[in-house]
UniProtKB/TrEMBL annotation:
<dbReference type="InterPro" id="IPR036412">
    <property type="entry name" value="HAD-like_sf"/>
</dbReference>
<feature type="transmembrane region" description="Helical">
    <location>
        <begin position="45"/>
        <end position="68"/>
    </location>
</feature>
<keyword id="KW-0472">Membrane</keyword>
<feature type="region of interest" description="Disordered">
    <location>
        <begin position="1"/>
        <end position="33"/>
    </location>
</feature>
<dbReference type="GO" id="GO:0005524">
    <property type="term" value="F:ATP binding"/>
</dbReference>
<keyword id="KW-0812">Transmembrane</keyword>
<dbReference type="InterPro" id="IPR008250">
    <property type="entry name" value="ATPase_P-typ_transduc_dom_A_sf"/>
</dbReference>
<keyword id="KW-1133">Transmembrane helix</keyword>
<feature type="transmembrane region" description="Helical">
    <location>
        <begin position="784"/>
        <end position="809"/>
    </location>
</feature>
<protein>
    <submittedName>
        <fullName>E1-E2 ATPase</fullName>
    </submittedName>
</protein>
<keyword id="KW-1278">Translocase</keyword>
<feature type="transmembrane region" description="Helical">
    <location>
        <begin position="74"/>
        <end position="92"/>
    </location>
</feature>
<feature type="transmembrane region" description="Helical">
    <location>
        <begin position="259"/>
        <end position="285"/>
    </location>
</feature>
<feature type="transmembrane region" description="Helical">
    <location>
        <begin position="754"/>
        <end position="778"/>
    </location>
</feature>
<dbReference type="InterPro" id="IPR001757">
    <property type="entry name" value="P_typ_ATPase"/>
</dbReference>
<dbReference type="InterPro" id="IPR023299">
    <property type="entry name" value="ATPase_P-typ_cyto_dom_N"/>
</dbReference>
<feature type="transmembrane region" description="Helical">
    <location>
        <begin position="218"/>
        <end position="239"/>
    </location>
</feature>
Amino acid sequence: MESATTVTMPSLDEPGLSKQDVAERQADGRGNAVKTSSSRSIVDIIRANVFTLFNGIILGAMVLVLLTGSWKDAVFGVVIIVNTGIGIVTELKSKRTLDKLSILVASDYLVHRDGADMEVPHDDIVLDDLLWIRSGEQVPADGAIVETWGLELDESMLTGESRTVRKKAGNDVYSGSTAVSGMALIRVTAVGEHSYAAKITAEAKVFKKTTSDLNKGINTILKVMTFIVVPLCVLLVWSQMNAVGGWSHALATGQWRQAVVSAVAGVVGMIPEGLVLLTSLNFAVAAMRLARKNTLVQELESVETLARVDCLNLDKTGTITDGGIAFNELRMLDGDEDESNAKQALFDLSNEEQPNGTGKAVLEGLGREGFAGGAVQARVPFSSARKWSAIVSYTGTWYMGAPEVIISALNGDYGNVLDMVTENANEGNRVLLIAHRSGQPAEDFAENPRLDATARPVALVLCSERIRSDAESTLQWFREQGVRCRIISGDNPVTVGAIARKVKLTGDREPVYMDARELPDDIDELAKVLQNVDVLGRVLPNQKKAVVQALHKDDHVVAMTGDGVNDALALKEADLGIAMGNAAPATKSIAQVVLVDSKFSHLPDVVARGRQVMANMERVASLFLVKTVYSALISLGVVLTQIPFPYLPRHITYLGALTIGVPAFILALAPNTRRYIPGFLKRVVLFALPGGIAVALSVLLSTWLLPGIMHWDMTNAADLTQLRALNAIILFVLGILVLARVAQPLTGWRGLMVLGFTVIGAAGVAIPFVRHFFALIVPRGSTLMATLVVLAVSIAIFLLCVGTARVLAMRRQAGKAAKG
C-alpha cells in the first residue's frame, strides 16, 4: 500500500504514473514481485527421503514377516522410520535456516506518482515508474537514468568488478547494484523476473542434487543386491517350504509362516540397512557441528564433497577481500612539503557531502590518527568527467584525483611520478595523486574549476581492497592439503594478481595471472590453459561457468565460492557451490554450503568434517558389507542344499547391533583427518569379501555337519532352535573379529570398545528376557563341547581367509610397484 511521506527531493516537471496506471500494471503482471525459493520445497524433501530403494526393500520384508504374526522378527523395520526421519528433519532445519537467511530486510522505495513522492514496498514498484535511487539503497528494478545528482553504483554483485561506477543521464542501471553515493531519478524499464539479475539466476535456481561418492557406492550395493534379492527371496521361500515338508504340508500345518520368516532372515541380512541409516546420521551430525561454526549445509551429501575437492575457485570480492576499501598510506613526494598539512588537506578533500568508498576509507584512516574537518574556503567536488576534486584552504589550493589526468595538466616533467604510480598500482593499490599550489586561486574558481599548471605533485594516496585477515592462513592450509586454489574475478588481472601475491596464493611461487578476454572459447583448449594459470581477471559470468566445465574435463572435483549474481551459474556448475552469508539471495539459494558469517576461514572446517565422514564411513561400510556378503552366500548355500535357514531375523538384529550397528556409530563419529583416496567401493568390497566368505563357510559347515554329529532332527523345532542359537554364537564371535579388524589399531579407546561389546554380548545371554526375546541359549554339556570345537574351526577359517587376502593384496601392490 502506498503511503504519503514528507521527503525533500528536487522538484520535477513530470507527474509520473497515476493510481490507475499503477493498478493496471499490477493487474497484468508488470509489478516487481518475484517468486523466490531459497531451497527445495517441503514436499520435495519428504518425497526424496521416503521413496528410496532401501525403504522399499526393507518395508516389503517387514510386511511379509508381520503377515506371519512373528512381530519380534520384524524389529528391523524400525530403521525405516529412523533413517527417513533423520533425513527429513535435518534437511527441513537447513531449509528453514536458509530461508531466514535469504529474506532481505524489507525496504521501502521512493517513487514519484501523481506529481508527488511517496514510499512504496519493493513488490509494489511497477513498469515505467519514476523511481528515486538514493545513497545506500540497493536498486530494486532495472531502469534508465532520467537525471542524476552524482550517482555512483557498486555493481560487483552483477559484474564482479569491485570499482564503483559513476552514472550519467541515459545510462542503464540494474537490480542488485547498490548506490554508494549521490542520487538519481530512474524510469523503471524491467521488473520482477524480467530484470537482468533474475534472467541470470533463472537457470541457476534449478535444483541440482550433490553427487556423493559415498551414496553412489551404497546405492550401487543396493542395486546389485536388488537383482540378487528378488530371485533369491523366491528361491529361499521355495527351499524353506521344502525344508518343512513341502507346500501342501506347510500350508496345512501353518509352517509356511516359519518358512517366510527364515527366507526374510536371508533377505534382511543382505541389505546393509544400518549403513544407510548411519550415512544419513553421520551427514546430519556433521551438518549440525558445522552449523555451530556458522556454516550452513543445505544438502547433507555436500559435507562429503569438499573432502574430494582438488580445485577451489575463489571469487576475490567477498572471499579474499571483504568488499571494503582500506586507506594504506600517504606517500610524500616532495620533501619540502609538510606531511601534516598534506594529511589535513587529504582529509578535507575526502570530506565531501556524500563521499565515495575511497573517500570513506581515507576519512576512517585519518580519523584514527586524530584528524578532523578543517576550514575549507571553497570546494570543487569530485567529478567523473574531470576525474579530480579540489579545496581551497589557508595553506593554498589542493587537488586530488587520477594521477595521469593531474600530471598532464601541470608544467614540468613528472615521468618519475607516473612510474611510481604504475609500480604501486601493480602491487594492487588504488593510487590517487595530491597536488598543491600556494596562494589563492582565481575568484571564479568554484564556478569555473580548472587545474593550475603551476601546482606541483606532493603525495600519493595509496588505498587497496581490504583483505580478510584469515585469507592467507586459509590458503596456506589448502596448499598443504593438496588443493589447487585459483582466484577468478571481474577485476583488472594486474590488481587481482597483486592481491594473490599478498595473500601468498601460490606460496613462494609468483602467481600467474591472465586477462580472461584472452581465454580460448573451446573447452578443451581452456582446460590446457588453466593448468598454468592461478589468477583470472575481467571474467564474465559465462566464463566462470566455462572455467568449471574445463576443469571437469581433466576430471577435477571443483568447488566454487561466490557472493554475487555473476557467480550463480558457476556455483551451479561446480561440484560444490559455496556462498557467503552476505551473498545475493539467488546465489545462496543454489549453493550447497553457505558461510553464514562470510568467513573464508570456515572452509577448512568443512573440508576436515568431510574427510572425517568419508574416512570413517569407509570403515563402517566395510563392517556392514561383511554381513551382506555372508548373508548372500549363506542364502545361496541354503537354496542349493535345501536346508533350514541357519538363524532367525531377530538373531541378526541382536548380533548386528553389538558387532556392527552401535560400534559403527562410534567409529563413524570418531576423529579422522585422512585425505580422501579415490576407489571407496573397490576397497570396501575387497575388505568385506574374505571376512564374509569366512563367516558364510563357518555357518554353512556348522549347519551341514552338526546335525549328523549331534544327532539333531531338523524337523524337530527344539533341535532346530538349538542349531540356530549355536550359529548365532558363531556369528557373534566372528563378528567381533571383523570389528577388531575394522577398528585397528586396537590401542586406546578402540581396543576398549571391542572388548566392551564382547562383554556386553556375552552378558546379554545371561539375562532371561534378552535370551528368550532373541531366541538365544547358554551351551551346556555336549552342546558346549560342540560349540567350542566349531568356534575353533571357524576362527581358523577366518584367519586363513583374511591372511590369504593380505598376501594377494601385497602381491598386487608389488606388481603395481614393479610396473611403475
